[in-house]
Each structure stands twice: as structure tokens, then as C-alpha cells.
DNA sequence: TTTGCCGGGTT
DNA sequence: AACCCGGCAAA
């Protein structure tokens, strides 16, 4: 009955023995989650930029008053969870004291997202305050500290209530909204209710149907979303920006500027989040939640224009692609075939996104420099020697070493630049320039550009320092490291 | 507006 | 199998 969460990635050895031991003692059943906790802690230490703030942040976490939610025993879980000196001896069985019903094991870090989570307890105005909210009541945004830091991350990482068992139903009946669960009616069409609620039987019908349908379970947050949650407040504070679009742009840039390790942290958190999600909602699939639109939109038939193909654009991206397709000589197998589904962590970024495999490009031969110098290469699994350009990398071969490669679509525009007289300065001008209205550069100079130099991968740093033509030449690598300006440029070009 | 994830369709 | 498309996740 106990889900074996650990199998997927523990093998990678992401946990130090010590940490593992500790965690296991605390939560014998939950290696994975414990691991996540651990890593989060580590993370915090690693990345917390401003110690002072952070310290204060910790306080609440350590010990929060038995703040029990009046409405439900459910919340007590969180308390249990975070009670330091309370390593439940009975934990393994973890039986609900009241019902006597065994609860599914829950990771230590899942509760934070919840309203009563330690980190946020103090900030909850009223238990009912969050009741009607379809959205997770407590998120980074809720934190006052401009510097959420890792702790915040912890707190915001998980939206799942500890004991939230499968969609069983009964839980929802408690009336306590699950952060990740949104009732369709609530979520949307508030207007509908005022409009024709009275007369239209139709409305009722539809309403009924909606209710009937299972509640909407939100998708788990991905790595970037988690990052956004954590950093948004900070960016807002620094930049005095309000528009999401602008903030997101900055966040996107910063995301790319993150070191591999930092990104890895978020990837791992996201993965755990997903894992937990699946645990809580066994049958859940993204598609189920979006019956109306998700993937069912149309049966699209690719109408292809005779003269035009994707490859064309790819050629821009990477001239090498125009060459004849790879042959077996160059490792024809993509990540999927190479590692299999069970080892997705080893896949390159594009592969994970179901995009074109980066290996493919590289395999093309020599033609291309590693998709992204340095960090991006982390994608390279041990098995592909060619990619091991960066030697130091294996220190952390484990779980997440697949991110930095941002080779997706952004590069396209870049390609254009490469091929035509590149206004290097213009490009560098940071997207801000190209995007007059949207970009906050003016109002928040730092925000836009202040990537932590330390975290910057060499290549990125180089490109920043001397972005002009030279850096442009190495298209792929540049794309990987400094995608932002490009995207903007694209627009202008288009 | 951002990146990542993933189902479904196409090649 | 490989990969593109489109949509969702938060704010």
C-alpha cells in the first residue's frame, strides 16, 4: 500500500547518507519526500541571498503554535508534520487518532502549501478567509518578506494537504477546499450566476452538470512556476512593477541565469510535487481536467504548405540540420530510446518537452557547439561522451541535470540575427528596447539585468560581457544561455 | 508575459 | 519513435 516514491530517483543518490538517515528516521516511509525536504534546506542555504531576512523567516517554521483549523481535523496534519520534537513513533502506521483510519503516509513538506502550514500560519487572517478561494491561499505572494528564500519555497512547494487521499470524495465533502482542487463553478463564470440563474433552467442544468463533474484538479506546478512563486515578490519589490507580463519577463530571464544547481532544485521540487500529485490523485491526468479544451480542441490536420516545412526554420536555427539526417554513426537514438521512460531525468531538456532532441543536433557532428555551453550540457548523460565537454559536471550526476538547455524555440529568431547584419548592440539593448511598453527596464534597471554574476554560466557571462557579434556566432550556445533578448527581437523582426 | 509539462495528433 | 501543437499552471 505504501507507494514507493523513492524508486524513481533515489537511486541517483541525491541524498547524503546523513540526510537520508535523518529523514528516514523521521519519515521512514517517505524517502523521497524527506529527500525533498532535505534538498530544500540545502537549497536555502545555498541560494539565500540575504541572510538577514531569511533568518526571520525561519522562525515561524520552527514552531508554530498549535494552530488547528477549526473546521477540520485535516489540518492537524500539518501541525504534526512540523512539530519538530514530535517525530511520531507511530508514524509508520500513521493512523488518524480520531477515526482510527490509517492515513496514507505523507511527506513532511507537503503541508506547507496548506493554509495552516507553519510558514504561513501567522499570516492567516482567518480560517475562513481562504475557504472560498479556489486558489491556493498561501503562496509566496502571501509572504511579506521580499525574500522568500528557500524556506518560502518549502512552504509554497506543495499544495497538497497531507492526508489528502485520492479523489476519494469524502475529503472534499468536508467542505474544505483543497488548494489544488477547484470546483468548476466556483472557478469560473461567476458572472453566469448573476446573469440568468433564476430563469434559465438551462443554466441550472449546466450547473448541475458542472457540479456533477469531478472537481477540477489543477496541474502541479512546474519548476519554473515554483520559481516564480518564490521570486515574484522579490522582483515586484525591487522593480515596483505590477504587470505580470513584465514581471514574468524578468523572472524568465533570471530563470535562465540561474545556475544549474539552482534550477535543479526547482526541477526536483517540481518533480516531487508531481509525484505527490499523482499519489493524491491517482487517476489524475492533465487531460481529465481540461476536458473542454485540453487537447480535445481539434483534430488538427497538419496542412502543410508545399514549399514550407519545419526543417526550414530549423535550418535557421542550426544550419547543421540542413544536412542529411543523422545516421547510426551519430547516435541515432534519442533520449527516450536511449534511457527509456523510467529514466527520464537523464533526457535532455527538449526531449523531456517532447521537442527535438538536442543530441540529434549535436550528433550532427561537430557542426554545432554544444547546445548550450557549460550548464546546458548537463543534459548529457554519462553515456554520451561527446557531450561531456564540461568535466566538472559529474559531481552532481544525479537527479536533475537536465535543465539549462533552453533550445526550444527562442533560438529561431536568433538564427535570423545570426544570418543577417546583426545589430549586436541592439540585441543587447535588452529586450527592453525592443519592447517599449512592456519592458520594465526603465523602471527597474536592476531587475531586468541583475542576474547574479556568480550564478551565470561562463558562456552566459561571456555573452553578457561581450555580446556582440562574436557571441552571436555561436548560435546554439548563445541561444541556450541568453534567450531573452532574442525572443523580443523576434517580434520586432516579424 | 514567462517556462515547463503533457495529451493528442502527425510524420 | 520522434516531434509539433496547443493548452494549462500562477500572478
Concise account of the structure shown:
The protein has helices at residues 6-9, 17-26, 31-47, 51-62, 76-82, 118-121, 149-157, 170-173, 184-187, 190-196, 201-212, 223-239, 244-257, 260-280, 286-289, 310-317, 335-339, 349-352, 358-363, 411-419, 424-428, 430-434, 445-449, 458-465, 469-473, 475-481, 484-493, and strands spanning 181-182, 216-217. The protein is mainly α.
Question: Describe it for me?
Answer:
This protein is mainly α. Helix content is 45%, strand content 1%. The chain contains 27 helices and two strands. It has a two-stranded antiparallel ribbon. The longest helix has 21 residues, at 260-280. Mean pLDDT is 45; it is low at 1-158, 160-177, 184-201, 296-331, 361-443 and 445-494. It binds a DNA duplex (11 and 11 nucleotides) through α12, α13, α14, α15 and α18. Keywords: Activator, DNA-binding, Nucleus, Transcription, Transcription regulation, Wnt signaling pathway. Residues 185-217, 293-312, 365-406, 437-494 are annotated as: Disordered. This is Transcription factor 7 like 2.
Describe the secondary structure blueprint for this structure:
Blueprint: H1 6-9, H2 17-26, H3 31-47, H4 51-62, H5 76-82, H6 118-121, H7 149-157, H8 170-173, E1 181-182, H9 184-187, H10 190-196, H11 201-212, E2 216-217, H12 223-239, H13 244-257, H14 260-280, H15 286-289, H16 310-317, H17 335-339, H18 349-352, H19 358-363, H20 411-419, H21 424-428, H22 430-434, H23 445-449, H24 458-465, H25 469-473, H26 475-481, H27 484-493
Antiparallel strand pairs: 1-2
Helix pairs in contact: 2-3, 3-7, 3-14, 7-12, 12-13, 12-14, 16-20, 20-26, 20-27
The structure holds a DNA duplex (11 and 11 nucleotides).
Amino acid at each position: 500500500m505504501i507507494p514507493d516514491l523513492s524508486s524513481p530517483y533515489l537511486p541517483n543518490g541525491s541524498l547524503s547518507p546523513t540526510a537520508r538517515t535523518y529523514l528516514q528516521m523521521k519519515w521512514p516511509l517517505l524517502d523521497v519526500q524527506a529527500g525533498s525536504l532535505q534538498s530544500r534546506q540545502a537549497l536555502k542555504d545555498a541560494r539565500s541571498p540575504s541572510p538577514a531576512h531569511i533568518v526571520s523567516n525561519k522562525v515561524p517554521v520552527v514552531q508554530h503554535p498549535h494552530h488547528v483549523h477549526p473546521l477540520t481535523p485535516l489540518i492537524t496534519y500539518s501541525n504534526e508534520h512540523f512539530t519538530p520534537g514530535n517525530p511520531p513513533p507511530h508514524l509508520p502506521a500513521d493512523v488518524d487518532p480520531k477515526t482510527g483510519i490509517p492515513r496514507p503516509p505523507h511527506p513532511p513538506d507537503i503541508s506547507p502549501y496548506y493554509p495552516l502550514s507553519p510558514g504561513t500560519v501567522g499570516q492567516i487572517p482567518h480560517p475562513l478567509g481562504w475557504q472560498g478561494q479556489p486558489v491556493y491561499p498561501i503562496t509566496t505572494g502571501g509572504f511579506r518578506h521580499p525574500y522568500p528564500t528557500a524556506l518560502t519555497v518549502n512552504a509554497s512547494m506543495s499544495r497538497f494537504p497531507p492526508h489528502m487521499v485520492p479523489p476519494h470524495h469524502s475529503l472534499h465533502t468536508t467542505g474544505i477546499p483543497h488548494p489544488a482542487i477547484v470546483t468548476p463553478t466556483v472557478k469560473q463564470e461567476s458572472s453566469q450566476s448573476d446573469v440568468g440563474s433564476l430563469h434559465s433552467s438551462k443554466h441550472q442544468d449546466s450547473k448541475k452538470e458542472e457540479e456533477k463533474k469531478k472537481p477540477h484538479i489543477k496541474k502541479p506546478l512546474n519548476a519554473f512556476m515554483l520559481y516564480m512563486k518564490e521570486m515574484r515578490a522579490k522582483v515586484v519589490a525591487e522593480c515596483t512593477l505590477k504587470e505580470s507580463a513584465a514581471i514574468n519577463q524578468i523572472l524568465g530571464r533570471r530563470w535562465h541565469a540561474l545556475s544549474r544547481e539552482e534550477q535543479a532544485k526547482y526541477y526536483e521540487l517540481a518533480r516531487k510535487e508531481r509525484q505527490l500529485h499523482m499519489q493524491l490523485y491517482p487517476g489524475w491526468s492533465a487531460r481529465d481536467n481540461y476536458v473542454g479544451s485540453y487537447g480535445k480542441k481539434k483534430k488538427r490536420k497538419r496542412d502543410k504548405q508545399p514549399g514550407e516545412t519545419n526543417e526550414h526554420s530549423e535550418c535557421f536555427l542550426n544550419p547543421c540540420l540542413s544536412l542529411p539526417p543523422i545516421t547510426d554513426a551519430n547516435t541515432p537514438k534519442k533520449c527516450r530510446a536511449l534511457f527509456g521512460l523510467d529514466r527520464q531525468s537523464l533526457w535532455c531538456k527538449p526531449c523531456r518537452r517532447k521537442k527535438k532532441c538536442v543530441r540529434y543536433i549535436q550528433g550532427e557532428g561537430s557542426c554545432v557547439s554544444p547546445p548550450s555551453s557549460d550548464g546546458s550540457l548537463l543534459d548529457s548523460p554519462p553515456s554520451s561522451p561527446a557531450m561531456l565537454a564540461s568535466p566538472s559536471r559529474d559531481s552532481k550526476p544525479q537527479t536533475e541535470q537536465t535543465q539549462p538547455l533552453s533550445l526550444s524555440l527562442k533560438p529561431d529568431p536568433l538564427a535570423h540575427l545570426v544570418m543577417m547584419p546583426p545589430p549586436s548592440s541592439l540585441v543587447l539593448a535588452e529586450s527592453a528596447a525592443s519592447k517599449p511598453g512592456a519592458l520594465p527596464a526603465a523602471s527597474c534597471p536592476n531587475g531586468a539585468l541583475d542576474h547574479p554574476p556568480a550564478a551565470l554560466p561562463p558562456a552566459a557571462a561571456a555573452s553578457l560581457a561581450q555580446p556582440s557579434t562574436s557571441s552571436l556566432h555561436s548560435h546554439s550556445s548563445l541561444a541556450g544561455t541568453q534567450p531573452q533578448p532574442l525572443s523580443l527581437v523576434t517580434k520586432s523582426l516579424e
